[in-house]
Every structure is written in structure tokens, then in C-alpha cells.
Amino acid sequence: MKIETVTIFPDYFAPLSLSLLGKAQESGILEFVVHDLRSFATNNHHAVDDTPYGGGAGMVMLPEVWGQALDPLMVDETDLIILTPAGKRFDQSMAQEFSRSSHIVFACGRYEGIDDRVREHYNTETYSSRNIRVHEVSIGDYVLGGGEVASLVMIEAITRLLPGVLGNPESLTEESHNEDGYLEYPNFTKPAVWREIAVPEILLSGNHAEIAKWRAAAANARAKKNL
Ligand code: JAH
């Protein structure tokens, strides 16, 4: 899988070389390329934004600069993801869908966002006929300073699903928050008593049927409490 990001803050993506994702790059499972949006600004002061038509607060990112940055990345079979608080909510099932992609491009906006004609332009038949799909995605109902951190969240959730990225693939099948919506049960390890709090007896019993029942009930109670 090739993942590219377009951003005015390339340094946000330094963590992609760390840990599991760094190893996945070395082994060739993953390839990351980070593009500096400002290098595509050819105007006087290398501006990437301007005031909004219709007035109002803040600045909007220039479509000309985004077009220059994105055009060369729009090869056949590409998922273009635009991070925006107004997008479709990212969840585990969306992570699973994107984990089947061969090429994902994250457009990371700043300020009040990207001129909406960028989304419209790449959402036309010219691109869809080449299996280029545009997705507006949000990781949750809060406003960030820009799309960079949201794209890091998505990259971590998506890439850990790729064969060979996780050390232990069993942790994918018995997932804390799997695609069926099952929530996680509480976990315990040694010692059996810590600061006078004992691990639930049933977990020490070796009765795997009863342990499974207890965990299902505990997961439900926890999910209900957190609603
Ligand atoms: C903020 C461009 N759902 C999280 C999220 C994603 C993107 C942005 N904010 C929140 C954002 C400013 C400019 C994108």
C-alpha cells in the first residue's frame, strides 16, 4: 500500500518512520510519501490561502495550489481522502475498507479548509472512470487545527490491518472494537491482588465457557455505562 499526504506541515508525519510503521516501510509492505503543499504555490509570496468569497472569518485554501499538488498523485485506483469536520465519520469498518486500497492520498487542510471546488473537480466522471474516489472524512465531532493529526489517526487504524504490519495477527481476530461492533471486556494480569483489589475469581478458574460468558456481560455493562 502506498500512502501519500499533502500538507503545509510535513514535520507532522515524522512519526510514520517510528516503530511498527517504520518496519513496515523497510519490509516494503508500506510506502509513505509526504508532499509539502507550499512547494506548489507559484504566486508572489508562496501563499496557499486567501479570503473567503461571501465574507466571514478566516482563510480558505487556494484550489490552484491544491490542483498542482494533487494532479500528479491522481493515478488509476486512488482513494483521495479530504479531512474535514463535516465529513463521514471514520470507524473500524471504514478502516477495514480502506485497508483494501492500494493507494491513499490524504489532503490535509488548514485554516477554514480547502476551496470546495477541489472536492468537486476530483469527484467527476473523468476520475471515477479511472477508479479515483474522493472521500470527505471526519474522525470525530471536534475541530482540529487541520487535517494532519486526523490523517495520522486514520493511517494507524488502516495500516495495522495490513498483513505483516502487526506482530501478532491474533490480536486482529480477537479485537477490542471489532467490525461487528463488539466492545472490549476489562483486562487483568499479574498480580492476582493489587492494592487490595482482586482479579475476578472466574478468570482464575480455567473454565473457558464461563470466562467467555463473564467477559461478554462485562463488555456489555461497560459499553452501556459509556453511552
Ligand atoms: C480543521 C481543515 N474530525 C476531525 C477533524 C478533521 C479535520 C479538521 N478538523 C477536525 C480540519 C481545520 C481545517 C481540517
From TrEMBL:
NCBIfam families noted in UniProt: PRK00026.1, trmD
Domain tRNA methyltransferase TRMD/TRM10-type: 1-225
Source species of the chain: freshwater metagenome
Gene Ontology cellular-component terms listed: cytosol
Function summary: Specifically methylates guanosine-37 in various tRNAs.
Enzyme class: transferase
SUBUNIT field: Homodimer.
GO BP terms, alphabetized: tRNA N1-guanine methylation
Family stated for the protein in its record: Belongs to the RNA methyltransferase TrmD family.
EC number(s) from the headed UniProt entry: 2.1.1.228
GO MF, one example: tRNA (guanine(37)-N1)-methyltransferase activity
Keywords: Cytoplasm, Methyltransferase, S-adenosyl-L-methionine, Transferase, tRNA processing
Pfam families: tRNA_m1G_MT
Principal location class: cytoplasm
InterPro entries with a match to the protein in the record: Alpha/beta_knot_MTases, tRNA_m1G_MeTrfase_C_sf, tRNA_m1G_MeTrfase_TrmD, tRNA_m1G_MTases_N, tRNA_MeTrfase_TRMD/TRM10
Catalyses which reaction(s): guanosine(37) in tRNA + S-adenosyl-L-methionine = N(1)-methylguanosine(37) in tRNA + S-adenosyl-L-homocysteine + H(+)
Identification of the protein by name: tRNA (guanine-N(1)-)-methyltransferase
Entries under PANTHER family matching the protein: TRNA (GUANINE-N(1)-)-METHYLTRANSFERASE
Gene3D superfamilies (alphabetical): 3.40.1280.10, tRNA(m1g37)methyltransferase, domain 2
Entry's localization field: Cytoplasm
SUPFAM superfamilies per the UniProt record, alphabetical: alpha/beta knot (SSF75217)
